[in-house]
Automatic annotation (TrEMBL):
Keywords: Lyase, Metal-binding, Zinc
Species per Swiss-Prot/TrEMBL record: Rhizobium croatiense
Top-rank EC class of the record's enzyme: lyase
Alphabetical list of InterPro entries matching this protein: Beta_CA_cladeB, Carbonic_anhydrase, Carbonic_anhydrase_CS, Carbonic_anhydrase_sf
Domain of life according to the entry: Bacteria
Enzyme Commission code: 4.2.1.1
Function according to Swiss-Prot or TrEMBL: Reversible hydration of carbon dioxide.
CDD domains in alphabetical order: beta_CA_cladeB
PANTHER family the UniProt entry points to: CARBONIC ANHYDRASE
Alphabetized Pfam families for the sequence: Pro_CA (PF00484)
Catalysed conversion reaction: hydrogencarbonate + H(+) = CO2 + H2O
Name of the protein in question: Carbonic anhydrase
Cofactor(s) it depends on: Zn(2+)
Length: 234
């Protein structure tokens, strides 16, 4: 806590004075973040640092395993953050960011580790599909680290699918007003890999080239023309 107190003092004395105008503007005009970022609560994964975002740039939701529970009427922090970001703040991009050496994914691979943590075990049920994919579709002789990495990357894709079950997301996808992104952060190298929905692969984005995206509204076919044609034929 002493280190945190020193950090607060440094912020107030050295950082805030140089950004005081920005903070006053944010306090006066409110926030208009560019994107919602759903990332892991792991202390080594810092969304603002990874993206070099400033105050007001990102609306961040962090939890164990960067999980997005499928939509339900039960209230939850992640679901509320998604709904608020889209409907109140008007974000047009959502990023689900997984990472290497993820403790939550290790727990999936070794459920015995979760016996003293029933709440964590229950939470991770939202990632079981990722673990099942790796167990069935990946080689049996994967090393432990490669298996955890594979589960973490598949988990990003699973959570993107869960995102699409949320009414606020589904509605914006239907009108091409929102784009979904899947990222994977390698802690050791600092590399970011981005999920390309068109090829179903993670790639390293290249500066100056278009950023691959996971899901766009254009990926979703509209049934309205079909309905209109049916009605016209009646």
């Amino acid at each position: 806590m002493g280190d945190l107190l020193k950090g607060i003092s440094s912020f107030r004395g050295a950082v805030f004075p140089n950004q005081s105008a920005l903070y006053r503007k944010l306090a006066r005009e409110g926030q208009q973040p560019q994107a919602l970022m759903i990332s892991c609560a792991d202390s080594r994964v810092m969304p603002e640092t990874i993206t070099q975002a400033g105050p007001g740039d990102l609306f961040v939701c962090r939890n164990a395993g960067n999980i997005v529970p499928p939509f339900s009427t039960l209230n939850g922090g992640v679901s509320s953050a998604i709904e608020y970001a889209i409907l109140a703040l008007g974000v047009s991009d959502i990023v689900v960011c997984g990472h290497s050496d993820c403790g939550a994914m290790k727990g999936l691979c070794h459920p015995e580790l979760l016996q003293p943590m029933p709440n964590v075990a229950a939470w991770l049920r939202h990632s079981h599909a990722a673990y099942s994919i790796v167990c069935r579709a990946y080689p049996d002789d994967l090393s432990e680290s490669d298996r955890v990495r594979a589960v973490a990357m598949e988990n990003v894709v699973v959570q993107l699918d869960h995102l699409k079950t949320h009414p606020s997301v589904a509605a914006k996808l239907a009108t091409s007003e929102i784009t979904l992104h899947g990222w994977f952060f390698d802690i050791e190298t600092g590399e970011i890999q981005v999920y390309d929905g068109a090829t179903a692969t993670f790639t390293v984005p290249q500066e100056g080239e278009p950023l691959p995206v996971a899901v766009t509204g254009r990926d979703r076919p509209h049934v309205m023309p079909q309905i209109a044609a049916t009605l016209a034929a009646e």
